[in-house]
């Protein structure tokens, strides 16, 4: 069959949702049934739940960056770049390649899986001074930054500077923020042994959240256990508190406290990728409103899933419930969307997405963890075994599994060397630079660009 006549399936985003979708399409579709193209800025799938372990140096960045090309059935065309707009009428996706070239990619079916970005608020100084924990570059940057604070405090004779460099603030008491604070506190606690001039008592971690509880999904008892572990480790947890103002050398909390610090890590939730807004379609709290089959109503061949879509949570059985933005849903939605794309291609019936949440695992570093698999509450080593076992088995390739296991063993036996690499040390680290949130077009700009390229709107 001629290439031109084959239906074109375009998948946007190589995360949990996009990669599971592509792998399923490669496995189930005959090569002459359709062409599959994947748009992704990076050549890997990032295993985000283990990001705090990269920041704390337990894992190397490479071990959680899974190759997109390591698959026996691999045949997808990969466009290295990011989608910056979609024209649903003309069926064109506008892409900015990694060399900043803008290209129009036509499709017959589009699967939108660009995930989410860090949610920010209109707080003075926040976007200029906070780091996020959403990308591999951010995790590696934060690790270097935290170690550099110890180096600079050690070299300084100014007590005020020392105190400021040794205070760290994490905002967000969800699993991402809690794990980040816990893992990085372990890093500084262990690293300070190598700095005999520094008083370990000066190191102070703050974890704050505007909500009244940490990780409410865990339930009251397990949430309190997590909080107790953090307090025991010297992390000051403040609930019902947020940030009023952020500066380069201090952060002001909403309860009036002013904390001298050079480190503000912002993990207060996520919001759908800005790509979704370029569609001009209906959204639910920023996520694209889709059916249980993950289709966009009124637009044939448009599918969306993962963190960027509000997929009805049929397993909950509540009117209006949508699936939470988690990897366990994104992966399974990826496979179901692939089945639905194939069903559409073959003129068969699509199936709705239904998955009952399996629970939550929270790795607080070392032997500390809390987990709630299938509703069973676990603490300490059993919880840690479940957390690590779950993540390990969810890594897609055997090579990644081996890398992660080797890293865990090496770290348990030999510890960390606390090496500061110096990469990007002189570059300001703003959220938008890591997450490229200012790259997107408005719906009007998308239309103008598509029309300017001579592509008709039907
Ligand atoms: C620190 C942390 C810990 C977490 N821990 C857990 C956990 O323990 N359990 C759990 O279930 N979930 C966890 N999550 C949430 C989970 O990682 C997300 O819900 C999941 O990654 C969503 O999958 P996704 O495919 O929708 O998005 P992602 O996995 O984020 O993938 C989106 C992909 O799209 C790419 N992309 C973005 N914009 C564009 C664009 N414009 N064009 C092309 N490509 C684009 C991105 O580079 C990325 O590769 C955690 C998240 C974080 C940040």
Automatic annotation (TrEMBL):
The keyword Ubl conjugation does not apply. Its EC number is 1.6.5.-. InterPro entries: FAD/NAD-bd_sf (IPR036188), FAD/NAD-binding_dom (IPR023753), NDH-2 (IPR045024). Residues 8-334 form the FAD/NAD(P)-binding domain. GO terms for molecular function: oxidoreductase activity. Keywords: FAD, Flavoprotein, NAD, Oxidoreductase. Belongs to the NADH dehydrogenase family. This is NAD(P)/FAD-dependent oxidoreductase. The lineage of its organism: Bacteria, Bacillati, Actinomycetota, Actinomycetes, Kitasatosporales.
